[in-house]
Structure formats: C-alpha cells, structure tokens
Amino acid sequence: MRKFVLILVFMLICSGFTPIVNGAVKGTIVGPVADKPQDKGALVIVGGALDPNNEEIYDAFLNLAMEYRETTLDTVKIAIVPTASASPYSSANSYKQDFVHYGVQEDHITILPIAVSDDDDTEDIDESLWADNGMSEELASTISDYDAVWFVGGNQLLYTETLLTDLGEDGPVLREIRSIYESGAVLGGSSAGAAIMSDTMIGAGTSLGALNDGVTYTDNYDDPKDNRVFLTQGLGFFDVGVVDQHFIERGRFGRLIVAASHEQDELAFGVDENTAMVVRNADKTITAIGESGVMIFDFENAIKEKDTRFSMSDIKVSYIEKGDVFHLDTKTFDIIENRDTTKGYEYYTPNPMTTDIFVAGALPKVLTYDLVDNEAKEAKALGFEMKNDVQGNGFIFTFRETDETEGYWGKIDGVETYAALNVMMDISPMDIKLSFKKQRNGK
C-alpha cells in the first residue's frame, strides 16, 4: 500500500477538542431499525462504475429477481429506468445487453420511456419528450409485470424530478414500482441509481466542503465555490440511513458523516465503485459483494461538539467486503470463512500518519494496514486544504481500537481481503500554518 507522507513542515493548531467517552451500556437492538416494519423486497445498490464483467453483482440481481415469483432466467422480466442519463436510450440499452449476456431473454427486458434528455445516438426518437411519462397511469399499469427494476446512472435529481409529484409524493410509475418492491421484487441501480435509494439523497458536495461549511438544500452541483453537501429528497426504498456511492474511490466519507449527522440517522452506508450493497429486507441483512467494499457508520453513541467547525467523537466505523454480512437488527457481522482474525497476529508495525484521508483508497488502508492488522492501537490521519501558501485548515481523524474492534485477513484467488469491525473514530478541526527554515548561506 502507498504510504502518504507530508513533506512540508507545518504546525497544527487544534481546536482544543477532547473526545468525550459515553459510558452508557451499548444495546444490541437498534430501535429505529429493529422496530420499523421493512418491505419484503431486496435492493442491489451499486457504488458506480459497474463493470459488465462483474458476474457476481449481475447474478445477485438476477437471482433476487427470480426469487420474487419463483421464475427462471427464461421467464424473468426486467424494467430499466434510463431517466438520469444524458444518453438515456444508449445507457439503458447497454444494461439491457448485459442482462441478455447473463441469460435474460431480450424481449423480457423493457426500457421504460421516462427521460428528460434527447439521446444523440437515436436519430428517430426524441427521448426528451418522455419527461412527463412518470405521471402516466398507462405506463404505471405495466409495472406489475416486472420482477425487477434497474435504475441507470447519471444525474440523480432527474429521478426525483420525473418520478415525484410537485408535492414530493410518488407519481403513478413510482407508486407501482414501490408496490412491487414491497411485495418482494428487487430494485437495483448504479451511481445515481444508488443515490436515490435512501430517504435522504446526497446530490453534490465534497468531504472537506461538508465538514467545513455544512449542509445546503439548494442544488450546488454546478457551483465550484460551494462544496457543502447538498441534501434533498430521495425515493426512500432504503429507510435505514443515508447511502453514498463512488465512496472509497472519491473519498466521500466526510460528506456522508455530515449528512447523516444532520439528518440524525443512526446508520449510514458508503458503497465503493464496482461494488454492491445487497439489502434483503426479509432477513434484515446487508451483504457486500464485488470488487471493493462497503463502509458502515454507526452514530448510536456518537457525540457532536457544538460551537465549532464539525467535531464528533465515538463514531463506530466498519468495513466489509467479498460476501461479509451485516445484520441490521443486531448490528452484528458474519465474516466469510476465507479469513482469519488479525487479533494477536498483527503483521504491521506503526505507520506514518496518513496525510490525505480523502485520497482514493485511503480510508480502508488506515482501518486495516494501520490499525486492525497493526501493532498500533490508534491511527491518525489528516484531511485539509491550503487557503494560501502558508495557511490552511482541515481535520484530524483519530481511529481507535476498543474491546469490540475486530480485524480479519485472508486471500481469495491470491488477492488480499480484509474486514475491519467496530473501529472508533473521532473528528476534530485543525488549522495549519507552514513555516520554512532558511538554509545556510541565506538559501
């Protein structure tokens, strides 16, 4: 793994924040998760950049589709919603060909005519004329024919624009999609198609922008000067907590933490690229499959400081991948058998501080190489930006092992795989001042 070493000399002026330890007994049953009735259906939430060759994710989606009405690949029916894409037909047709490749009959796959952009690749069709079709009762009446619905990537705001009424309620097509989902159908989507899944949807923003400046309810996607996390209404298929995508690759955990804290969600989830979070409502489980992993943030005992830039202690962080399972009702994990515990067998010795926690791949590296598979019991990381040549601000992230922390390591087909469970994280703001020492001879 790449080690991130800060070569500039700087002085950190921390906010004086001291982590507050919550001594309350931690229960195993999560009130809002365990008590809230769940739908019967399932979700395959993909963090973007889905590789057509990712057989594991496609198989998971299709197997869940077949379970709904005990169909087969020869009879299963899929609807594809192309709305978010700037090239709606081309994007949906690409997924259609993928499903055909994995065994679905081509005439059993329908691209639903709901879009706001005209696809340049279709000369005879103006897809922008489909903008109002989410309100069509005629189209809605066809949804019950399908065992699965797939949402393509693009601009997630176009889904809410076309599928929700002006009052923010389900339009006819969304109403029927929700109906089959509650009956047991599977819904899936990648990137924008993943962002829409939760009640609260993240529409834009960066991690540092969110931590420094907070939340906005105004679309700031095209404003390069406004990096606050933009929160808006999602479609609410997943009612447990906020979901974010492209998560590890784009270092988005800062904005997810701010969003979840603002919405007072107990749990939040980040799904990396070419990876899926498979939600089975019937047994209240989440399974991580695909190339990378899923991050789970638990705020049950987290404490947020007031009157300061974002500062929070005792956030419980877990990282799972390759078939690991998280139980929503008990907050426990089932770890795949290919791994062994790292406890007492830690391979690494303390590593230098990670100086850019938001760079691609940094967060799982800190949790695994720097902590659960390391003799160190604590790892620190920085996330910051410079305002000028000598001053900047950012945050210090402290990751701590507790008695509940567990680590697991193994290899699958020669490739390392980890799980890091129940790591405590504290976030405190910092300011940066750089000082430069003159060399001899005035240099």
Describe the model.
With 443 residues, the protein is of the alpha+beta class. It is 20% helix and 30% strand. Helix 9 links the parallel strand 10 and strand 11. The chain has a domain at 42-334: Class I glutamine amidotransferase (GATase) domain (Rossmann fold, 3-Layer(aba) Sandwich). The strands form three sheets. Strands 1, 10, 11, 14, 15, 16, 19, 20, 21, 22 and 23 form an eleven-stranded mixed beta sheet that branches. A nine-stranded mixed beta sheet has the order 4-3-5-6-2-12-13-17-18, with helices on both faces.
The shape is globular
Biggest beta-sheet profile: 11 strands, mixed
CATH architecture of the domain at 42-334: 3-Layer(aba) Sandwich
Q: Proportion of β residues? A: 25-35%
Please tell me the overall pLDDT.
Answer: 92
Bin the helical content: 10-25%
Gyration radius (Cα, Å) is: 23 Å
Distance between the termini: 36 Å
Secondary-structure topology with pairs:
Blueprint: E1 10-14, H1 31-35, E2 42-46, H2 55-69, E3 78-81, H3 88-101, E4 109-111, H4 137-140, E5 148-151, H5 157-163, H6 172-183, E6 186-190, H7 192-195, E7 200-204, H8 207-213, E8 215-216, E9 229-233, E10 241-244, H9 253-263, E11 267-271, E12 275-280, E13 285-290, E14 293-298, E15 303-304, E16 312-321, E17 325-327, E18 332-334, E19 339-341, H10 362-372, E20 378-386, E21 391-400, E22 406-412, E23 415-434
Parallel strand pairs: 2-6, 3-4, 3-5, 5-6, 8-9, 10-11
Antiparallel strand pairs: 1-23, 2-12, 7-9, 11-14, 12-13, 13-17, 14-16, 15-16, 16-23, 17-18, 19-22, 20-21, 21-23, 22-23
